[in-house]
Recover the amino acids of this structure.
């Protein structure tokens, strides 16, 4: 029998100042119907100090509210101090940790951990391998089409699988900071200019079509990947949790909407209209899910079979 | 240091061998490798002949199976690995853990190299791949400085290979779905980035506009040569400034760093360019071969010649230099 599908709030990818980050999580703890919350700087190690003073109180508040807290690791690890951070996380025993790069996969092995959407899990063989090394839940890469998701779920039944269901899609990460570069700086003297754009800095084409979104060394989609209409298929395929990636919109309202659709209280098409009101800043996309260009949005046909 | 050279065709392969490659890398004519372009790559028979040609001259052949196995189609990658092993490949260059595990288990004698697409950017990551899959060499991502490489070299139990010349990924390799976002074809699953099938050029007034899928990647006023719309080398509009947001249309030339790379413990230098013609391969390989063996003064003269061969004729030392970040 399938268990009730759950919601995971992903790590805040953007640079929010400490109090904003804290208050956001306090409200999630108090109001959002999510089972687990992933916290911790994931994109740029230079930002760590913004949230560090608030980590303990946020963890406490979330746990008191019954949420499972998972500590995120960095997506790109090149510097000595970044490597040290991963080694410290590997020693963490009070909370689950989430691996977002290969060093974390290596160091977290042997202890229960989760795997984030920035690790390349494209097939069942890889999912089984990570599960054998201690991964208990894997959030699959956003670019996977449904056909792959379905196949991986069938091939790796012993590991819980999660899908990236809401948020601007993480598309790339670089040693170079395009965000700093766009403001005439480089990574080493960036002055944290990415903090000016808490929902990302829009990259438009020269024909002024919004295309991508910069977040420090990370590049996201301009569109918001939204699988609200595709949840029933994913649940049927065996996906046990859905990840909501924080944007500056009302994430409590987003979580309630996804919860209602998963509980059958609202229908996907109707919920999409509400979602557009909650997060009007970004058009929706679900092209990756439908094996199309990621930027596309494929409306679900009400008469579609199966 | 070894010189590892690209070959997209049997003719380019022979040129690379004759021009002084220590090893040539190539792939099968399908999505099992990251240069899955029309008209490129090797049939099984062509690979058999190429490996024989190379072995007769003391040169090794590395077979790149460096895309990620599409769920449900794993057999395509498993068969490619089985054939490459049977044909006598000296190393397989792999990116997918599932495929690495398969090769390590089925063909424990086969030498396994970690592709740049695996994005193993630190000692712990590399240690993991050595421990889990018995990897003998790692091709380092183009995200590291020379100092980073030297630091890594001291702490890993395998060889390091680095890119020194040719195309340059701006993003961490194997972790980029920008092209997939615009075209639906995934570099990781389909082996193509900014594929020609999705490229269009159109005139707009006096401008030439280049597009990838539905997105404008660049706009060239009359008189400026219209380059290929590789997504991360496009010009975009950010807060009303028009610029190359990620990287200029440059290519990598780090041959000036070879002494530092040798001192850092690098055992092999890699040239990008399986999509390039045989004349280019012959010219670049023979020049770099001479440069590797030359005195510093002589090397400078040789390398000056190389600039004319680079893509767009503009070069960068990329992440090897800290300020690139």
């Amino acid at each position: 029998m399938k268990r009730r599908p759950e919601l995971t709030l992903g790590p805040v990818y953007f640079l929010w100042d400490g109090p904003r980050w804290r208050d956001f999580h306090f409200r999630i703890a108090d109001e959002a119907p999510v089972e687990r919350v992933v916290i911790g700087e994931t994109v740029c190690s230079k930002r760590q100090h913004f949230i560090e003073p608030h980590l303990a109180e946020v963890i406490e508040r979330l746990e008191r509210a019954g949420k499972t807290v998972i500590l995120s690791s960095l997506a790109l690890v090149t510097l000595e101090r970044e490597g040290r951070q991963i080694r410290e996380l590997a020693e963490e025993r009070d909370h689950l940790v989430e691996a977002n790069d290969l060093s974390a996969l290596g160091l977290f092995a042997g202890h229960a951990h989760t795997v984030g959407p920035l690790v390349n899990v494209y097939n069942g063989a890889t999912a089984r391998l990570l599960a054998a090394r201690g991964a208990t839940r894997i959030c699959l890469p956003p670019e996977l089409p449904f056909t792959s998701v379905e196949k991986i779920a069938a091939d790796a039944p012993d590991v819980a699988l999660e899908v990236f269901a809401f948020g601007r899609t993480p598309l790339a990460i670089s040693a170079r900071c395009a965000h700093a570069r766009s403001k005439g700086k480089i990574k080493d003297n960036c002055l944290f200019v990415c903090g000016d754009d808490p929902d990302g800095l829009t990259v438009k084409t020269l024909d002024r079509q919004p295309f991508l979104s910069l977040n420090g060394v990370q590049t996201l989609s301009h569109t918001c990947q939204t699988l609200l209409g595709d949840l029933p298929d994913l649940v049927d395929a065996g996906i046990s949790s859905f990840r909501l990636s924080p944007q500056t919109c009302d994430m409590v309202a987003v979580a309630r909407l996804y919860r209602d659709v998963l509980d059958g209280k609202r229908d996907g098409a109707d919920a999409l209209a509400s979602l557009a009101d909650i997060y009007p800043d970004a058009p929706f996309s679900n092209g990756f899910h439908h094996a199309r260009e990621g930027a596309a949005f494929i409306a679900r046909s009400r008469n579609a079979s199966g | 240091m070894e010189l590892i050279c690209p070959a997209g065709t049997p003719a380019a392969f022979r040129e690379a061998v004759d021009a002084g490659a220590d090893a040539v890398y190539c792939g099968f004519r399908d999505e099992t490798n990251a240069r899955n372009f029309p008209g490129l790559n090797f049939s099984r028979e062509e690979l058999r002949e190429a490996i024989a040609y190379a072995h007769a001259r003391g040169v090794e052949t590395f077979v790149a199976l460096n895309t990620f196995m599409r769920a449900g189609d794993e057999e395509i990658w498993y068969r490619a690995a089985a054939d490459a092993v049977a044909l006598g490949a000296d190393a397989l260059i792999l990116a997918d853990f599932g495929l690495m595990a398969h090769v390590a288990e089925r063909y424990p004698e086969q030498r396994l190299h970690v592709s740049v697409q695996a994005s193993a950017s630190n000692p712990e990551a590399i240690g993991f791949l050595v421990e889990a899959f018995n990897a003998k060499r790692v091709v380092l991502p183009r995200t590291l400085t020379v100092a980073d490489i030297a630091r890594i070299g001291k702490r890993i139990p395998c060889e390091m290979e680095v890119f020194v010349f040719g195309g340059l990924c701006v993003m961490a390799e194997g972790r980029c779905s920008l092209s997939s976002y615009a075209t639906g074809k995934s570099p990781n699953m389909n082996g193509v980035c900014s594929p020609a099938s999705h490229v269009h050029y159109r005139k707009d007034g006096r401008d030439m506009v280049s597009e990838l899928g539905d997105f404008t990647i660049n706009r060239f006023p009359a008189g400026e040569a219209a380059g290929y719309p590789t997504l991360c080398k496009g010009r975009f509009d950010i807060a009303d400034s028009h610029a190359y947001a990620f990287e200029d249309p440059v290519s990598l030339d780090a041959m000036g760093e070879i002494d530092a790379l040798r001192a850092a413990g690098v055992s092999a230098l890699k040239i990008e360019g399986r999509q390039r013609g045989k004349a280019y391969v012959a010219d670049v390989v023979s020049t770099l071969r001479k440069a590797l063996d030359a005195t510093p003064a002589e090397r400078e003269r040789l390398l000056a010649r190389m600039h004319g061969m680079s893509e767009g004729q503009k070069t960068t030392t990329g992440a090897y230099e800290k300020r690139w970040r």
Summary: Residues 18-31 of chain A form the longest helix (14 residues). The two ends of chain A are 19 Å apart (CA to CA). The CA atoms of residues 165 and 227 of chain A lie 5 Å apart. The mean pLDDT of chain A is 95.
